[in-house]
Design brief:
The protein is an alpha+beta fold. The chain contains one helix and four strands; from the N terminus they run αββββ. A four-stranded antiparallel beta sheet has the order 1-2-3-4, covered by helices on one side. The longest helix has 41 residues. It is elongated and about 65 Å long. 6% of the residues are buried.
Amino acid sequence: GDWSSDVCSSDLVEGHASIERVTAKVNETTRREDNRLSVVDLQRRVEDWKGHDITSFGDLLLRETFFVIKSDSEREYNVYLFERIILCCKEMGISGKKSAKSNSILKRPASRRVANLQLKGRIFVNNVTIAHNVSRNSTCRACACAAPAACRPLC
């Protein structure tokens, strides 16, 4: 038939927008499920919650690994940003049932052992009053300048 380029263009734009909506929903669903599984893993691996209840933290928003240099040594922390709290955890020794015999079939392979986590720090989000972006390759959020270090007192 006789197709108008405007009609085809309009259909393509609508189709593209539909694909983007579906992709965004799939990505969000995947992110939420990954975060749910991370919370289950965190709950299982932390040795001592120091009286805190993980169900009161809200949804997990982000999980990252950070390296901190202190006294010429580098330390690795697993950081979890929940709606109400930020948790910093450090991996401890490997957990897993070991038998008395070193070659026992009951022994978990090294690849299946899971390191326990020690809760090293927590920050309640309602106590955070200001945050500064200190990354090197970013613009200042407050004034959109290219030199956040120069205007840090203002931002």
